[in-house]
Design goal:
By secondary structure, the chain is mainly α. Helix content is 47%, strand content 0%. Bound molecules: iron/sulfur cluster.
């Protein structure tokens, strides 16, 4: 059966439908993160949601992620303290390059 354009939902409606389906598959405790990512376009929550989804919602798997080449590796949530980059000292940075 052939469908016409008027029968197809628009992108906004289709996206809402897809989001609702996906949300139903997400463990309840992580739904808020996903909603912030897709409804508020929050990048931090988007990275968090993507990492959580990547590891089937097992938070500890992100902590121990061994995919060093993943584009999100450096910005993934729930890092071990030893994996965090030291905070940059603004004064030290200002002085860099001066001799
Ligand atoms: S950083 Fe690790 S957990 Fe996050 S998306 Fe990449 S592979 Fe998955």
């Amino acid at each position: 059966m052939k469908t016409t354009n008027s029968e197809k939902p628009d992108m906004g409606t289709l996206r809402k439908q897809k989001i609702a389906c996906r949300l139903a598959e997400i463990p309840k405790k992580y739904r808020k993160i996903y909603k912030k990512a897709v409804e508020a376009n929050n990048k931090t929550e988007a990275v968090k949601a993507l990492c959580l989804e990547c590891v089937c919602w097992q938070k500890n798997e992100i902590i121990n992620c061994s995919c060093l080449a993943c584009p999100l590796y450096g910005v993934r949530p729930y890092k071990k303290e030893t994996d965090r980059e030291p905070k940059k000292n603004a004064a030290a940075i200002k002085g860099m390059g001066r001799n």
